[in-house]
Structure prediction request, 1094 residues.
Amino acid sequence: MTSPYDDFATGAANFVPLSPLSFLPRTASIYPDDEAIIHGKRRYSWSQVFARCRRLSTGLKQIGIGYGDTVSILAPNIPEMVEAHFGVPASGAVLNAINTRLDPETIAYILSHGECKVLIVDLEFAPTASAAIALMTPDEAKKITIIDIIDSEYDGKNTSIGTMDYEGLLAKGNEDDPWQLPDNEWNALTLNYTSGTTNRPKGVVYHHRGSYLMSMGTVSDWMHAQKPRYLALVPLFHCNGWGHSWTVTLMGGVIVCTRAITAKAIFDAIADHGITHLGGAPIVLSMIINAEDSHRREIARGIKVMTAGAPPPPSVIREMESLGFDVLHVYGLTETYGHVTLNVWHDKWDHDETVNRDLMLARQGVAMAMLEEQDVVDSQTMIPVPADGETIGEIVFRGNTVMKGYFKNPEATSEAFAGGYFHSGDLAVKHPDGYVQIKDRLKDIIISGGENISSVEVEATLHKHASVALAAVVAMPDEKWGEVPCAFIELKDGASATEEELINFCREHMASFKRPKKVVFTDIPKTATGKMQKFELRRMINDGEIR
Amino acid sequence: MTSPYDDFATGAANFVPLSPLSFLPRTASIYPDDEAIIHGKRRYSWSQVFARCRRLSTGLKQIGIGYGDTVSILAPNIPEMVEAHFGVPASGAVLNAINTRLDPETIAYILSHGECKVLIVDLEFAPTASAAIALMTPDEAKKITIIDIIDSEYDGKNTSIGTMDYEGLLAKGNEDDPWQLPDNEWNALTLNYTSGTTNRPKGVVYHHRGSYLMSMGTVSDWMHAQKPRYLALVPLFHCNGWGHSWTVTLMGGVIVCTRAITAKAIFDAIADHGITHLGGAPIVLSMIINAEDSHRREIARGIKVMTAGAPPPPSVIREMESLGFDVLHVYGLTETYGHVTLNVWHDKWDHDETVNRDLMLARQGVAMAMLEEQDVVDSQTMIPVPADGETIGEIVFRGNTVMKGYFKNPEATSEAFAGGYFHSGDLAVKHPDGYVQIKDRLKDIIISGGENISSVEVEATLHKHASVALAAVVAMPDEKWGEVPCAFIELKDGASATEEELINFCREHMASFKRPKKVVFTDIPKTATGKMQKFELRRMINDGEIR
Prediction:
């Protein structure tokens, strides 16, 4: 098929590769003197951030970094971490932000597998970085140039481990060099390793096109504001902080950094800096809800909160809303650049007594604007499940905010993309209105006497109990039933409950066969991003620590 | 340069062509029962609009339309016009929305040059369409299938001219057929003929990628609202209504249609339908400002207004703001899908007495998010002019919302893209803060005694006079000076002024040599989109009608 409409080639005037790197020069040109990043006593304007990012980019080139090299960073959400999200890819390199809570062995694996050439390390994590490097072969280790970040807001005693510090690297750069976009929007932008539960972490590769569209879709679905004031709680090493620092740059806003994430720090930042938007895992929202009175501050109503990372218990959303926050529940994975579905709330539900508000709040919802399609299918046949709210299938995705693939792992990549969709590994139902609701991770479903029990559902029931602060439910082997639910519980400060009381509570509030057969009161292990580490709970069961 | 990051191919899971056609199925799935289009007594929900667009798409296929065919439409902003923006390209065809105020001869030229296969005509324009067809050769004419739109809100007496009506075409279609996106985001989406001043109109070809990004950028820079209620005043035949009906669909909003654009209709629509956003040329804003008291209604404050099409006089913006509207002044051309720059207002200017507010309001500003670059250059050397607010150069653009090119006109295309930028033909200065301000069209500058006189500046001065409703200034030949400014004036209702009074007013308010030497009181001819037809004024001068 041809037509006269085909007689046009793309050219410099009408085709530009999509990249979030475009956002920075534009915002620096429109708002040069406006606040861009706030961190403790440090302040940067957009022209300063742009100049520093150009220095970072050209400084990296000066030390031999270029197209397709990997630059890793181990840092909290500080200005240098934001700058790395622009300056590193502008050099042609790929940014690999590493989860700071990982153990040295895993970090060593990531540095090695990711072919790291430069490792930028905040002093707080210098010992971890040193330990990781020590685990590598000398040949591998000597390929890595270490750069220290010496943050004035860091109050620990660790000392430098690098060959130069970050400001020294910037001094090598030139802020007058032109800002370079990628030649191709499909070029790699960042490398994000999955948290890894039982297996080795996999390296998820993002491209420029995807992160550009992620930002645009995040604006159209959530960040409806010019010059938002954003509190950076979502770690930038987690899906690049859901892409939010690129998005805030697009919107000419302010990024407020945090080293420590505590209820006091959050309330202070919101009150002192007029925060309008923030993101956080449900555990961070619980931190806000359960803050000590002395840490609470008077804050504005209507602050927009995006939450994801784990299905938020409806009670958490309701309590946040009663504090005046406006919560949007989204869902996604590292492989989808973060959030790709959102739980659109319909105003008419507010006035309809037949609507089960908790059920509505618990759903992961519908595709965001930048995702082409979400569906729930039989993983093998790819046939969609009926939209009956009951039949469980796997959530699959298709769209421009799906990763390029797993770094140096073509088998895992083709498995993940089987049938032309990305397979999330999450089990869900599709409701008659098309909204998707996660029932469990493929590996987290509990099969008891032939019945599927959703650990998420049992957890949601436990969260309704007044004494429960956090609940994690996993399968426990059982001679009679095959598997039964075992609940791990953190109680609220000063609250109390017994095992029997919680089991009876579950029996009263859900199908009896789904109730936990065992309740353990303990601190639940979590990842840096607030996800409960269920593999650790399973290990405790399998090692016989729980009986 | 290669790296392991290059080892990824795009696939169905992670690459989807960008297209505004994506917006419709998503919004229809999230908001199936919500209002989508309002037109007089007619109401359509999003599921209805989607069903009708699928019927239009498949109905067109039934009558032989497919990839690369041209489907033209001659209609006001009615539901069928909105549907055509989705249903026509979904069939693989290219939508050619024709300016309804054009003369039959020009329309015949467009139908012929555009290779029209189907012409969809609202009854109001049936006589014009018939006259146009009659001017074509019988061979050309017989290739065109005519479809009538019989709008219940049309109260004229014209009768059908087509082989079937629009609803009959929909009846041939199938709303269960899958919705098809283009294979390639670079495929042609629409064909928009420039208004054409002295030359034949040129056919500007838009692609799917461009219109998708236009919508996303319009959201991030302006439409900060889920479910906006949009009043469709900008004719959809003008840059596809600045892309707004795609953008409103993306945001799940409501499109309120209008057959006639009058102050009464605008106030009624705003008040009755809770309008939150609208676009309009400055002349439409003047209509609102100068409305009769009996046509005014009480309306909400903070309604967002996007204005473009001609530089809005600062007084118009100020008067709109005093009525409670929130006006954004943007600029662009048919070749850039409409608006690509915006005049970002800085709050600090509100409190700074040294700021010349009128100057600030008059500027076209900075690049919008979807445009990569705007600059002002010497047209020949492509060297940027200094950012001094004085040196005049040509505005040039580079970005993804620049047309594919001119249809069947490679010479004009390559001329427009000379040097890797699109040449706007508009003359401007660049201020020290990077904001661009148009001084004139290349052909509208008046060269008097070797000095450049900006007709825009003279017009802005005349607009400050209390009696002036509209001013148009063009060059008039002069033996001594070469050219001198000649002003055409429409007075406000009931107001009066003399030629001498206006010339003296200009002498007092601007450099004396720029004052008009001649003032003519008359109705100024305008295009359908409210642009003053200066070529007509020049013709009057050249033909000796003005002395």
User: Anything to note?
Assistant: Residues 242 and 338 of chain B are 5 Å apart (CA to CA). The first helix of chain B runs from residue 23 to 30.
